[in-house]
């Protein structure tokens, strides 16, 4: 009876002006909260059909980097492995990685670039009258955390074809139009619809068009998927700001059908002194997402995303192995060399040298230095004299020794990029660069730049490296850095 009385009173309240006002206010509020929750979760946990996520399953091997330094002069071992699919964005930690002559697989495969305009003046003498003409040139130029620290907030995921779900061999077709026999040309557009001849569908074309469409949308047929995420904060809601997780998906090794459908173009992208022809696949990113990305990064110039063109790699011209004068070494979008090695004990030693008032004192994260191979075991700075090492297992193209050799091209010269915190993207005004300049100007050729870590060149075509692998120092000596710009 009490329940009936309560229900009656409840219905009576809802029928009253006060109840109607409450409904008008509460229902929209509930609906708003529900839709906001769904919108904010957009781009959350998901799977890529036909693919497996390439990631270290357990906790990070760098989780104990501050308190688990091995005894000095112990055996050097691979502590942790990182690849950075997009240059200067967050890396992916792995338990093992394939290594090629151009570095760890998937490392620096992509790079953001902004369009930079410059004026070039030319004067001409026209019958005693001097005339000056200004020509405006435009050039795509790569960007990094040096000038855009918020790149550190762009997380990346690697999804590779799952062999258990497909029997098809993933396309690893080179994107060069020459390799594709003209099927992928700069600026070529794709028109949907069935091919016809005199208005009559060609025999068998419908089936082929359907198969082609499947290959365009099939991630596994395009080498897998790169996922980029970033938190985009919006203002103007009744509760203030709201954060939306933006997700961008890109093919790792797109086949010619997808390249044609998305109208990829080949353009020159400047990276230091090189301007390799690279693949502009910005059409893969929705216009709205690209606009939000520009705002998030604080970039005002036109922004694009480029992929390495396997047929237009950059030549390594410095620090080459003297005993291999006829071999050619290549690199993609890495700064200058294929692989970067860093000794964790050396990072701890730099941390100890930081001034007491430094905010980063006692918590200098090794990830700031964006190495591929993090090493534990040797004493601090022992790697300064490494000239040649072996690590992992060679599979193809190894030298007669049958081991996975790496040539140390040079000590790694350091800029201010490690001043950027890898999690917050906040850039310290001084440290650790100021301390590095004070304590690590150890290479006459690199001065006035400080050095930390080693830049390496693999001396084999294909191999594999795993966390825990022993590193054998094959040769030691003295490095002299060769400057890029002279």
From TrEMBL:
Q: What domain of life does the UniProt record list for this protein's source?
A: Eukaryota
UniProt lists compositionally biased (Basic and acidic residues) regions at 424-441
TM helices/strands, residue ranges: 13-34
The cross-references to InterPro entries, in alphabetical order and at most eight, read: MoCF_Sase_C (IPR005302), MOCOS_middle (IPR005303), Pyrv_Knase-like_insert_dom_sf (IPR011037)
- List every stretch annotated Disordered: 422-441
GO terms, molecular function: catalytic activity; molybdenum ion binding; pyridoxal phosphate binding
Q: Pfam family of this protein, just one? A: MOSC_N
Q: Supply the alphabetized keyword list.
A: Membrane, Transmembrane, Transmembrane helix
- Tell me the ranges covered by the MOSC domain, including all copies: 313-474
Kindly give the PANTHER family that the UniProt entry links to this protein: MOLYBDOPTERIN COFACTOR SULFURASE MOSC, MOSC DOMAIN PROTEIN (AFU_ORTHOLOGUE AFUA_7G05900)
Q: What is the protein name given in its UniProt record?
A: MOSC domain-containing protein
Q: Tell me what organism the protein belongs to.
A: Zasmidium cellare ATCC 36951
């Amino acid at each position: 009876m009490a329940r009936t009385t309560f229900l009656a009173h409840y219905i009576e309240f809802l029928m009253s002006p006060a109840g109607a006002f409450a409904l008008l206010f509460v229902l929209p509020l509930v609906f708003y909260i529900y839709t906001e929750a769904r919108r904010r979760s957009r781009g959350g946990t998901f799977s890529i059909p036909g693919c497996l996520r390439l990631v270290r399953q357990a906790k990070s091997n760098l989780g104990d980097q501050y308190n688990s330094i091995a005894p000095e002069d112990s055996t050097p071992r691979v502590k942790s492995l990182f690849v950075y699919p997009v240059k200067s964005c967050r890396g992916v930690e792995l338990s093992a990685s394939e290594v090629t002559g151009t570095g760890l697989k998937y490392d620096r495969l992509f790079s953001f670039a902004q369009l930079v305009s410059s004026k070039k003046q030319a004067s001409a003498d026209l019958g005693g009258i001097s005339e000056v003409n200004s020509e405006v040139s435009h050039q795509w130029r790569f960007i990094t955390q040096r000038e855009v620290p918020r790149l550190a907030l762009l997380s990346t995921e690697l999804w590779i074809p799952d062999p258990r779900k497909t029997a098809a061999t993933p396309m690893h077709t080179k994107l060069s139009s020459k390799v594709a026999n003209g099927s992928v040309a700069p600026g070529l557009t794709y028109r949907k619809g069935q091919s016809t001849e005199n208005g009559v569908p060609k025999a068998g074309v419908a089936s082929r068009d359907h198969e082609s469409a499947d290959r365009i949308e099939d991630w596994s047929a395009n080498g897998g998927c790169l996922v980029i995420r970033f938190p985009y904060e919006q203002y103007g809601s009744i509760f203030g700001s709201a954060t939306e997780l933006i997700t961008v998906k890109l093919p790792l090794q797109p086949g010619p059908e997808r390249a044609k459908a998305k109208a990829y173009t080949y353009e020159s992208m400047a990276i230091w002194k090189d301007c390799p022809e690279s693949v502009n696949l910005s059409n893969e990113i929705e216009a709205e997402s690209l606009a939000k990305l520009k705002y998030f990064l604080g970039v005002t110039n036109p922004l694009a995303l480029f992929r390495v063109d396997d047929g237009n790699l950059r030549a390594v011209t410095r620090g080459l192995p003297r005993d291999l004068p006829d071999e050619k070494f290549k690199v993609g979008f890495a700064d200058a060399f294929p692989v970067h090695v860093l000794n964790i004990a050396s990072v701890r030693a730099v941390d100890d040298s930081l001034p007491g008032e430094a905010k980063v004192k006692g918590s200098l994260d090794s990830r700031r230095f964006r190495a591929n191979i993090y090493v534990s075991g040797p004493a601090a700075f022992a790697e300064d004299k490494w000239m040649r090492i072996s690590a992992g297992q060679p599979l193809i193209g190894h030298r007669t020794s049958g081991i996975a050799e790496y040539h140390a091209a040079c000590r790694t010269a350091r800029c201010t990029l490690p001043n950027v915190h890898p999690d917050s993207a906040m850039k310290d005004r001084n440290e650790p660069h100021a301390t590095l300049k004070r304590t690590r100007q150890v290479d006459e050729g690199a001065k006035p730049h400080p050095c930390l870590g080693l830049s390496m060149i693999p001396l084999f075509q294909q191999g594999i490296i795993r966390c825990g692998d022993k590193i054998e120092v094959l040769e030691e000596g003295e490095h002299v850095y060769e400057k890029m710009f002279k």
